[in-house]
Amino acid sequence: MTMLCKISDRLLLLLLSALAALVTLIPLEKLGVFGSSFEGQSGYAALYFGFPTLTVIFALLAVQFMPRPLPVAMRIVGWLALAIVALLMFA
């Protein structure tokens, strides 16, 4: 059971890191950090370069600084946040 708990915790942290990276990229792309908005290419650079890079950085920080194993309340809040985002995306 502890191995399943570790895998679940890591998966939760990875998915939350990806969500945080996506939320972070929206204002950065609007500011033109990833290229000129006049060219229309800044969204592609943000998606293909910025998103994976920020996801890895956030995931490494989350795994490094989060307590192990994650508290039950933190797991519930994390999975509920991901479920709400998934429902909003597909609704």
How would you describe this protein?
The chain crosses the membrane at residues 45-65, 72-90. Keywords: Membrane, Transmembrane, Transmembrane helix. This protein is mainly α. It has one domain. Helix content is 79%, strand content 0%. The protein is built from three helices and no strands. The protein has helices spanning 2-30, 42-65, 72-90. The protein is elongated. It starts with a helix and ends with a helix.
Mean pLDDT: 84
Supply the number of helical segments: 3
Overall number of domains: 1
Structural class: mainly alpha
End-to-end gap: 34 Å
Helicity range of the residues? over 70%
Give the SSE layout:
Blueprint: H1 2-30, H2 42-65, H3 72-90
Key traits:
mainly alpha, 3 helices, 79% helix, elongated
Summarize the structure.
With 91 residues, this protein is mainly α. Helix content is 79%, strand content 0%.
